[in-house]
Design brief:
about 35% helix, 6-stranded parallel beta sheet, about 160 residues, single chain, 6 helices, about 20% strand, alpha/beta
Amino acid sequence: MTLETLFLFDFTREGFFDLDFVLDMNVKNFKLVLEITEDEQIATHSAVKHIKSLKSKGFLFAIDDFGVGYSNLSQLKTLNCDYLKIDRSFVMDMEDNSIRSSLIPYIVSIAEGLNVDLIAEGVENIDQCNELKGLTIGFGQGGVFGKPQSVDALAKSVRGTQ
């Protein structure tokens, strides 16, 4: 799975959603997930229309930085996303047993209620990874899994593991 971030203004740019050129990347073992940031209210009719169109072509969607932005439950239902990305600030606070990190089980419940998968951001060590697995969070992103890399480096890495 690879992630590409979208911002609210992207939904207003003419021709932005003509992503047919990357459809051949959207294959069985490699899925392109488009991230939508929570920086602004995005459940507009136009945004929902574009998301439905892209989903019909096989693209998946993730709501980025869940828990620190503008999301509300009705917006999440309207957008019909595939993943919620737990903001790294929740994961970083796990080792301190902070109030913020104690909210993670509630985020898991929300995701279960919406029937979406979770991705934890900022997973930097094996202890965090194991605790998140215990909370049934299926995906992680962060230094424990590898450093960010270019598309070319990722393609080379994927080819090397096949």
